Amino acid sequence: MNRLSLNQITTRNWSLPQAVQGCVDAAIPAIGLWRDKVAETGLTRAAKLVRDAGLAVSSLCRGGFLTATGAEGHRAALAENLRALEEAAELGTDTLVMVVGGLPEGSRDLTGSRARVAELLAELAPHAGDFRVRLAIEPLHPMFCADRAVVSTLSQALDLAEQHPVDQVGVVVDSYHVWWDPDLARQIARAGDRIASYQVCDWTLPLPADALLGRGHVGDGHIDFRTLTEQVTAAGYTGFVEVEIFNQQIWDTPGEQTLATLIERHRAHVAQR
Amino acid sequence: MNRLSLNQITTRNWSLPQAVQGCVDAAIPAIGLWRDKVAETGLTRAAKLVRDAGLAVSSLCRGGFLTATGAEGHRAALAENLRALEEAAELGTDTLVMVVGGLPEGSRDLTGSRARVAELLAELAPHAGDFRVRLAIEPLHPMFCADRAVVSTLSQALDLAEQHPVDQVGVVVDSYHVWWDPDLARQIARAGDRIASYQVCDWTLPLPADALLGRGHVGDGHIDFRTLTEQVTAAGYTGFVEVEIFNQQIWDTPGEQTLATLIERHRAHVAQR
Predict the structure, then answer these.
(1) What is this structure's pTM?
(2) Which of A21, A92, A221, B207 has CB atoms 3.0–4.6 Å from B214's, for a disulfide?
(3) Which of A108, A151, A221 sits opposite B223 (nearest CB)?
């Protein structure tokens, strides 16, 4: 239980103050915040709320969207990510989750988009160091390659991260996005202290009409969380296990009930025995 | 045009005789057959039809489904694939496309399922040699890992294929399944004469309610077919380019119209200039 974190998208109908109170009531020690929810509450107030509640902030979601073309797109992406780094620092988290973005409208230049991600990461990394916040590159499931993230495997994320100091750029291991990868065990071992965040939710079928919302509670799907957690732990990761679920049915469930399920599933499938 | 092949699932509402006639009328020189359509027509009659029409049979879809557990599941998979090999030989194709199967009901043992695939391939490979038909392992997009194919990357397919003589086990490069792979260029070059089939259709968004049916005509989506085809050609592949599309709207289109689109898109995006 002392490693469980609620990513607040999992209780999407809760405001930030409600999610903080929910964690306190359920004795969940950490929370992953989203920038839109922080903005709703106000940055200073949000930071004070989590601090006063004694919660750790396991991550801020999210920076990224680095694939825009042209000088203007480049400038805008840089500025937005600097703001996100500043917010992360103010909120007291050392981890900014980076969803790098998909192909620009009408583009088929996947190689070029991937090169732009590398370039912008190189610009951002020193700033991350200044803020003492780590850019955590999240490989997204290949089904999101065209529209959300051209970083599709842990190996690719590590190739990018290893260009920079370990305290500036790391990676996210999100079960939903990487569970299928035949090379996963080897890449997790390789990742070592590059693992900035371990996020969990399950692969459930069928995929819903909106493929983004197909994620299930840990234990409801096809992922072997016992093995995955052992691999992440063996790599040296000692941080929080953040539950991040995009699922309309779960969003429509009362938050208290969702948190009770999180705790039950964490005990059954994730927590070390 | 002399390398274009119609995979008959693309004109799903056509019977095998209709698809053969459609290819003849459109001057498409090859066809990829499906076992259920062959069975509808009768194996001997189907073989005679394509032979008399002067069509090459670029592949038979499909063998596979090798992940069943238990002695009975094992025996059934072996028997079914031997039948498929025999049909392929009778139909005059040297390529049996293998969709290896997903996780067995209730299983989370992805590593175990992958090991079973390797075991059954080892049993089948010598028989493939006897029939002079190559088992063509098709890596499927990772979004089908749980329910259709635990072989998810070209690298993984090649690791399996390279255990066997090149004339017994090869791989399929299907644009839809592999286009996102950051390691793709390197793996295609590695594949060389292991490439038994090159299948094309485009990645279009949004994914439909049935994620299986989201494939689009070449040119309608996000894949750079010019680059992909160059890579496959540079690897030494000189066989057919088979258009295989699962898409309800395209299935509802008159076959003649679909074939006209195939030809137009092949010229615009695939054929060497």
Answers:
(1) 0.97
(2) B207
(3) A108
